[in-house]
Give the backbone structure.
Amino acid sequence: MWQNVTGTSVVIQVDSESRYNASVSSWTKLGDGGVLVYISFTVTDAEPFDPPQNVTFENVTASSVTLTWFPPTQPNGIIVLYTIFYSENSTVGKQIVPVSDLPERPSPGSPFVYTLTRLIGGTNYTFWMTSNTSQGDGGVQSEPFSLLLPEDGQSDTQSTSIETIY
């Protein structure tokens, strides 16, 4: 006599933007019933759950700043670009940086590095970043920080200051 199974489900967590193969088989009191169904599926990108991590700076000059950061801990897909926002007073600029334009990191534990140029010495800038998959940035951004660039002719150690904004 056959007994019908009305419903069995299994929920698994998978990474975004990957192809998966799965098989479904049955078991009875007598043992393995053999593989019944093979399935393949692809999970598409979603927006990142969190922003670029540990955004900081190095190599500050009167006209440039080198930013370093790590990818989001929950990218929810393949990060295709980063956007660096910078503001002074009420003006906001942005630099879109495709991942393909970034120098290769020496190891997965190394930060990304990008030098933002054409800044104005003696200006107090606020910087923050977002990361994008093919679906967008998820509306999440890194913690902003302010940085006073040195004036032309001054060393960066004389007048550079930083302030984290909460």
